[in-house]
Amino acid sequence: SKTDELSLLAASSGNLSSSTSPQPTAGKRSSKDFIFGRVIGEGSFSTVYLAKDIHTSKELAIKVCDKRHVIREKKAEYIKREKEVLNMLSVNFKATAPFFVKLYCTFQDPDRLYFTLTYAKNGELLPYITRVGCFDIDCTRFYSAEILQALEHMHSLGIIHRDLKPENILLNEEMHILITDFGSSKILNATHRDEERAVRRRNSFVGTAQYVSPELLTDKSASPASDLWALGCIIYQMVAGVTPFHAGSEYMIFQKILKLDYICPDGFSPSAKDLVDKLLVLESSNRLGACDKEGYPSIKSHPFYQGMDFETLHQQTPPVIS
Ligand code: ADE
User: Fold this and answer.
1) What is d(CA 102, CA 115) in angstroms, rounded to the nearest whole number?
2) Which terms does the UniProt entry file under GO BP (predicted)?
């Protein structure tokens, strides 16, 4: 039954640490604790609503999944993974993980699952890139640096996002990034991490065509370097205004990716081009940063980021996007 299959989702879903939780009282929440507002996001099996906590008046985003739909589409694994990853990232949130949406609590009713999340007031990064055509160098440096800090933290925990793209990068009220949508992510455990490299377990997951790495297309294996490929695509997109591999169909996009068929247009900043060229490398282990032991010193020391203080990014005032 749907409750059996999804009961695991509820099993460990107590509210998170009370000191950072928006609720004044302990105990399981329900949809009665919130006033639901407009739809702010829609996925293939979920809808995200703007909501207000009736006890604190705090605004939240609530992701609602229809259980029947989740089971019909065999997506229970995705939802469990998303919850597990959000829980890992929500621990010690302010100190270590300022660049992720935080999961406050989860609850369910007979038909639906609910995740209460940070509300990212300024929505997705994508329309900002589209609206201005492309980012200036300051904006590109700042926002790609925040994404890199976020990747460094996730990867240190063994989490690969696998669907990193400007639609999954949200902006809070201060215009800092909040990465979301961990339904496609993968958690490498310590023993797995080495095994994974050797065995190259097959899985059927492929992210979004424009940002998917060649290794996901050829041997269906993802590593943290797959997110570095996506970062290369996003830096290119910020500078050029379009993704590096675009074509009329997914099939043709995949062909271009596998042939590394992209060009940086005239006027593309030379240091940004050098960085993109070092991230968009077919062999994943040859990407800049792929062999770094801890953090991404080889990316951070690239001339493109000269003078950037990565440690204090979330305390800095973001450059105005124009
Ligand atoms: N769209 C999807 N998730 C969201 C969130 N947490 N905040 C704002 N918009 C969203």
Assistant:
1) 10
2) cellular response to oxygen-containing compound; intracellular signal transduction; regulation of developmental growth
- Give the tens place of pLDDT for each residue, 56-113: 999 999 999 999 999 999 999 999 999 999 999 988 666 667 999 999 999 999 999 9
Tokens of 85: 């990853």
Residue of 39, 40, 59, 168 to test ligand 1 pocket, by largest number of atoms within 8 Å of CB? 40
> Distance between CA 14 and CA 220 in Å, rounded?
35
63 is in an annotated binding site: yes
DSSP 15: -
Q: Ligand 1, atom 6: nearest CA belongs to which residue?
A: 119
> Are the beta carbons of 240 and 134 closer than 8 angstroms?
yes
Q: Across the chain, which distance is largest between two alpha carbons, in Å?
A: 58
- DSSP assignment of 212-233: --HHHHHT----HHHHHHHHHH
Q: Which two tokens stand for residue 83?
A: 């919850």
The end-to-end CA distance of the chain, in Å, is: 52
Q: What ipTM did this prediction achieve?
A: 0.96
